[in-house]
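Hi, here's the filled form for the chain we discussed.

Project: internal
Contact: R.S.
Residues: 678
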Amino acid sequence: MSSTSAPSATSASMSPIEIVLLSLLAAALSLAVALWAGVVGAAVISGAGLVTVGLGDALRAIPALVRNPGEPSRAWPPEVAERIPGPAVYWTVTVLSVVAVVGLFVAARMLWKASTTGRRRLGVDAHARFAKRRELRPLLIREPVPGRFVLGVWGRWLIATENRRWAPPTHTGLRRLLARATGEMRSGQQGDVTSIAIAGPTRCGKTSQCAIPGLLDWAGPAIVLSVKRDLMDATIKRRRDVGEVRVFDPGGFLRENQGAIAIEDHEIARWSPLRMAHTATGAKKAGEALSSWTPKAGVDGGMDFWTTQGKLLFTGLLGAAALSGSPSMKEVAKWVYDMERPDPKNKKKACAPRDVLDRAFKDPRKKPAADSAIRHLRSIWNKPDDRIIASVYATAQTVCDPWLDPNVAAATDLKNGEGEWVDLDWLLDTGNEGKDANTLYLLVSLDDYKRLAPVLAGLLSDLKSQAYEWDMQGRAFPAPLLMLIDEAGNIPLSWLPEVSSTCAGIGIQLVTIWQSLAQIHEAYGKRADILLTNHATKLFFPGASDDSTLGYVSKIVGDEDVERRSWSNDLGGGRRSISGQQNREPLVPYFLSRLPRYGSALLIHSNIPPAHVQGREWWRIKRLAEMAPPPTPEPTVPAGCGPWTPTTARPGRRRTEATSGSAVEEQTERCEAEAVAS
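And the returned structure, exactly as it came back:
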């Protein structure tokens, strides 16, 4: 008795050999019908009338037609050979007959599939499967298209995001109808920009084979946050070719070590939350930007509490600092660490933020901003419980800690810093001809990533707020803006779950990179599912071993119907029995998504079935390799250090030391004396 699995129920009563034989018979019969129709049609068209030949004559004519196609009449019986026209007419009609037979076969198969009772729910096939080419047509392109982020390769095609606004289909007339019929164009809300989430463990290829080649092919402005230099080093040459480049380096890494790719002085970027905090509205936006980095402290609800209280405190303190004579984030940090607030028992005691605002009240131009700032501060200072006030200040200290760093101060000082300021107006400046695409790199080492997270989150939040302000003012983006956040799990942003669903509508292509879904749940808690849902395009690279990722992938792709067939033979009676049973099994089993080759990924996009795509090894693709800087030499070995040449001990042998005979005798006598004494 033997058993096997098959995806179709139509073959439950046939063995594999029978299926092959039946297929060959059907092919021979179809060919015979086509040849028979061809010879009859050719005779009628040439005016010779109907010829009486059968399907057997057509099969016997095949060898002669292959040997001598120039004289088709010799392949047929002598009684009809004279009525068969020359090769031009004969083969033309025969080819048309073959096309007609194939078309009838395809139409019959489609009608049969439509008439079979399949499981359809909500108007779609309920069977889990991978996407076909027709379904992927909206994502497939031959070459990079401005406004569409290239995700990888599917077969001979590049596969990229959709973008109805910046890269709409240009088909017209009959070509447009054909694009609709083949699925290349989609209607309704389908086919628009979606946020992208890339998940995979370290060294799986998500940066080297997806983020880097995608950024090399991106033609618009970009914001790139990375904890490794490889992303910047591989793409900065290309980004310099298409526009200006600025690097925000709050950790001062570039001041100490330029590395293989040198950054010019005018390419150093500066930014400060105090840039627009001298107005009431600007202070509120700056406070929101600074409080967007939300430490959860491991408790439910901690994020919401910090978001509300942090906005109030920082709105007031930033407003006060901006209205002072020497605005500085370092001063704000000192106020937070010193817990500067009025003493209710001694109203004459100095309080720096209050004193600054009192002086600002005397200036009519500063009075509205000062009034707003003091109201926000009083909402914290006047709380009845001192423990709540202390808790708010203590939590604020986790955000203010980086601003005491001299390197951060140099990158954010309004007066004494070096470099160029960055804002959305500079980032979206496409030049006189509209062809420039500026780039902002946010560079920080992995060790400093969490420590400087409030600074990085503040800059990203400020740029995000400016983008939505543009939209409210009716200012359209001149070009699509890419926002690529590497290691997004280490910098939780309170606004990311909501913005990931709406940023596409204003022209931002958001790409976030994660190590696993477990990291998302750790960073965002109950809002993790919201974040994941709003990233309508997801790429899962292999190698994950956490339950969240493996379970999610296995569930979202669904279960397929697998037929289990078994047959048994009765050797004595010559009888055989066959049985079949339908089982439902995961299309991608729990363990399987961990095993594919590194560099490949499972694509989940919108309402299209899943697809298996391949990353792009950009260093092997000539077009992309030419965009990157030349390979850098290997790091030099420090002076006085030679190359590492480890020694390997031979198995089964021990290293022994030679001893003199007297030493052995002394050791033996000592052991005997110890034995007697014991």
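Let me know if anything looks off before we file it.
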